[in-house]
Each structure stands twice: as C-alpha cells, then as structure tokens.
Amino acid sequence: MILSGRKFAKTVRKDLAEEISQIGGRPPGLAVIIVGDNPASQVYVSMKKKACEKTGLISRTVHLEESVSEDELLREIENLNQDSSIDGILCQLPLPEHISDETIASSILPSKDVDGFHPVNVGKLWRGEEGLFPCTPTGIIALLKYSEIQIDGVNAVIVGRSNIVGKPMAALLLREHATVTIAHSHTPDLPGLCRQADILIAAVGKPHFINSEFVKPGSTLIDVGITRTSEGLRGDADFEQVKDICGAITPVPGGVGPLTIAFLLSNTVKAWNRNR
C-alpha cells in the first residue's frame, strides 16, 4: 500500500477550510519569518503561503536580511507575539550561524508556537498534555490512523534523533501505546534492529540509506528524508528495493512532505481557536 501524504493533506486542508468558514469572524493568521535568501527556504515559505491562501488563513511573511542581529530578530518576534491578528509564528530554518535556534524558539509565545519547538510545548508533549507539537510527527501519526495502520502495541523504530522529527516522533508514538526504539549512528547492528520494527520511521537525511536489509516483511515504512540529488528528490529509503517487502510505504516526493504543511495549518487553526 502506497501511503499518499499528498492525498491525505488535501483532506486535512479541506476540513480546516470548512471549520474556518463555519466559525467565521477573523480568520486564522500565520506569520512566517525568513532570514536571508536560502533558495530552499524561499520555496518552502512560498508553498506555505499558497497553502494558507487556499485554506482561508491569512499569511504574513517577514523577510529579513541575513545580516540581521539576533536582537533585531527577537524584536520582530515580540511584535508578532503582541499582534492579536497573528495566531501562529514560525521562523524558517536554517538560521544564520550568528543566531541561536534555541534562543529564537524560546522567544515565540508557546500559544503561537506552531512549530512546537518551545520548551513549554516540548514539556507538554512528553508529559502527555495538550499543546502545539511538531508538524511532521503529528502528520505521520494522523496518516497512520487515516490509513488504519495499527500503532497500539506494535514495535516502532525511529532512525534519527533530531529535535524536529526523531524525538517528538517517539513521544507521539508512545502516546499511542507503541513500543518505541530510537536508533542512530551509534546503534550497533542497525539493520538487525530495524528488521524488528512493525513501523519503521526513517529520518536520517541520507538518500537510499534504508535498503532491503533494514525492512521486516509486511512492515510499514515512513520515509521522512528528502534530499535533492542530480537524479531528483530522493528519500532515505531505496523505494524500488523495499516497496515489495513493505506492507505500506510513503513515497518521496508526495509522502510525508505535504503533511508537514497541512499540519502547520492545523496547528495554526488550533491556536486560533484557543486565542479566540
């Protein structure tokens, strides 16, 4: 089974648009800050803006020069924190080396932190409380449920331990009662461990890293990685080699990527409902 994130994301955006139209009043507002002229960041920000417009959200882009100081960026964020027309704020990564990702993430109000990176939201995630959580892992859980793939009681292995995907993915899978292992570059016999997984999450950023040696027959493989190569976009999994082994798999592109934007909008609508 090919798990189409693109198809599911359309359903999510349609439901959000209906929710916004039924409630009425001021529409949800999302502010995206981009620092510098990174081409990939510009593409991502443009995609987010288009998705907002199609779904009925107000999108505001704040474009700052790469030379902007950390203090100046913090002032921009504080202005958005105080702006009652803005429900969600995100600062597009990567940031220049002279600006601390952690400082910026901690400066956004937890109630407007639609990336789910603020320490308050991270704490709520691990404590099992309600909050705003990282978009990609949230979307993956929703896709698994939408596709009627069992999570409760299964073995889940995550390859990658980033704060953006690996760690929050583990917390969300634990909430759904999976038995979770986080694997990484120091894990011995990584292929053998991955072959025990009923659900395998690949989030390492290395094209075709996951091959047939890593995959248990009939398992579900969620490919989070996306790398631009001379042959086009490639995922962490060697799709052609593993697709006939898996019971279900996400393609690249068209798998996890569309979910990230859809659940960014979902987080913004959630923040909007609370702020109202």
Please describe the structure with a list of short key phrases separated by commas or semicolons.
Rossmann fold, three-stranded parallel sheet, 10 strands, 276 residues, 10 helices, alpha/beta
Report a brief summary of the structure:
This protein is an alpha/beta fold and 276 residues long. It contains ten helices and ten strands.
Structurally, the number of domains stands at: 2
Helix/strand structural class: alpha/beta
CATH superfamily of the largest domain: NAD(P)-binding Rossmann-like Domain
CATH class of the largest domain: Alpha Beta
Query: How large is the count of helical segments?
Result: 10
Strand portion: 15-25%
- Low-pLDDT stretches: none
Please count the beta strands (DSSP E, at least 2 residues each): 10
Q: Based on CA inertia axes, which overall geometry fits?
A: globular
Largest sheet: 5 strands, parallel
Give an overview of the whole structure:
With 276 residues, the chain is α/β, with parallel strands linked by helices. The protein has two domains: 26-109, Rossmann fold, CATH 3.40.50.10860; 135-257, Rossmann fold. The protein is built from ten helices and ten strands. The strands form three sheets. The protein has a five-stranded parallel beta sheet with strand order 5-4-6-7-10. A three-stranded parallel beta sheet has the order 2-1-3, sandwiched between helices. Strand 1, helix 2 and strand 2 form a beta-alpha-beta unit. Helix 1 packs parallel to helix 10, helix 2 packs across helix 10 and helix 6 (135-146) packs across helix 10 (257-275). The protein is globular and about 50 Å long. The termini are far apart.
